[in-house]
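#lab-general

N.A. 3:47 PM
ok so I finally got the sequence cleaned up, no stray characters, all 205 residues accounted for. can someone with queue access submit it? mine expired

B.Y. 3:52 PM
send it over

N.A. 3:53 PM
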Amino acid sequence: MKKLNQFLLPVLLTILIGVIATACAKKPYINVNYKPLASPDDLKNKNIYLVIKDARSDTTIFSKNAEAELENFTDLFALSLVMDKKNSVVVGVFGPLSLFREAFSKRLENIGINILTDYKKTEPSIEIALQKFFLDLVDRKWVVEISYEASMTKENNLIFKETISGKAERVKVFSKGDAEKALSEIFTSLINKLNIQKLFAQDNP
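B.Y. 4:20 PM
back already:
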C-alpha cells in the first residue's frame, strides 16, 4: 500500500498542477456580450444589403498598457448574444470587422430584416465604416472608444449618413473581466444606437 501511495502521489500532483495551470491560463480572446433591442413589427421582411468597411487610420486595438495586461491576446473576440439576464448564446469567435458584421447582422435579423447575400441596386444598402476601435488602460481604468459611420444608399443615391461614437470607462479590479464589461457595454450601446427605423423611413418618405 505504501508503494502504491508513493506511486499515486506524484501522478495526482501532476494532474492537479495541470488542472490549475489550465484554469489560470489566459484566454487568447476577449468576451463581448451583445444584447439586441426588441423587435418593432413594422420592419419585418424588409431587405437590406450589409457592408462592413475598415476606415480606421490606425488599426491598433490596444495601447501598450492594455496589451501588457492582456497578454496572449490574438485580436479575436468571442461574441455572445444576450437574450435576457439568465440566457446567452455564444455566436462564435471573430476578428474586429467580423465582430461588427456579426453584431449588426444579429441586430437586423432580430427585428425581422432580411440580409441579402448579393447586392441589388433596387434594394437599400447599408455600409458601416469602422473608424475607431481602441482599448486603453489609464490610471487603473479601462477606457474603450468606438466610432463608426453608417450610410445608406439605394440605386446609387445616398439616403442617410450618420457618425456614431462613444466611450466607456471601468475601474480595473479583476483585469480582463473589467475590460470585457467595459467593451460589452459600449459595444451594445453603439450597435443599438443606430436608428434602423429612421433609415427605412428616409428610404420611403
